[in-house]
Amino acid sequence: MDTPQSKKMEIIIPAYRMHTQSFLNVLDGISEEDGMKRIEGKTNHIVWMAGNFVNMRYSLGWVLGLRDEDPYSDLFFQGKALNESNKYPTLDELEKNFHDISPKIFQKLLEVTDEELDEIFEIGMNIPFVRETKLNFVGMCIGREDYLCGQIGLMRRILDYPGMTYDMDESIKY
After folding, report:
1. Would the pTM count as exceeding 0.85?
2. What is the pLDDT of residue 90?
3. Which helix (H) or strand (E) holds 142?
4. Which of 76, 89, 99, 171 could link 55 by a cystine bridge, Cβ 3.0 to 4.6 Å?
5. How open is the CA angle 162-79-27, to the nearest 5 degrees?
């Protein structure tokens, strides 16, 4: 297992790697047509959820010093509301971007220092018990990824797909 420079990342790294696997598993077999379906006009579609997941990764990379830009940021940044008049990318396009940014972020998670993680990173939450640091932002990104995988998993079942598997592709190292 890779050893992070900061011990604070020892809990984040396994979660990040598990989310990589979960994201790919939860999207496995979803057709592009089903990826655009909403339930009774009330839910986001899977493409929006997957796009927001990938955008979360780009945001995490940005906070850690990467300057890669999400080509679909205008559709997903900060959980931007779904707009049915927008043209959304395909699941294949989102997975390609996911595989492009994710290993770079993984490397940054290994290299980040305690000092960098303790730096203030204001996101305007104004919650008295949440200190807005880079470390807490990393934690919020991990939490958001959990939430989105759960939402996509629920949509899988509603759309009559089998539940997500927990198969691991050991060739993916991020």
Report:
1. yes
2. 98
3. helix 134-158
4. 76
5. 20
Query: Is 27 within 8 Å of 50 (Cβ atoms)?
Result: yes
In 3D space, the residue among 80, 75, 68, 77 whose CA is nearest the CA of residue 105 turns out to be: 68
CA 102 to chain CA mean position, Å: 9
d(CA 85, CA 126): 33
Alpha carbon of residue 24 to chain centroid: 11
> What one-character DSSP code corresponds to residue 119?
S
Which residue, 2, 18, 4, 8, is CA-closest to 142? 18
Q: Which is more confidently placed, 130 or 160?
A: 160
What is the arithmetic mean of pLDDT over 111-128? 94
Tokens 């986001």 -> residue: 44
pLDDT at 1: 63
* Tokens representing residue 50 in the block: 């997957």
What is the per-residue pLDDT across 49-78, written as a single tens digit (0 to 9) for each?
A: 999 999 999 999 999 999 999 999 999 998
The answer to whether 75 and 88 are in contact (CB under 8 A) is: yes
Minimal CA–CA distance to 8: which of 116, 105, 122, 143?
116
Lookup: tokens for 89: 């990318």
As a whole number of angstroms, the distance between CA 164 and CA 151 comes to: 11
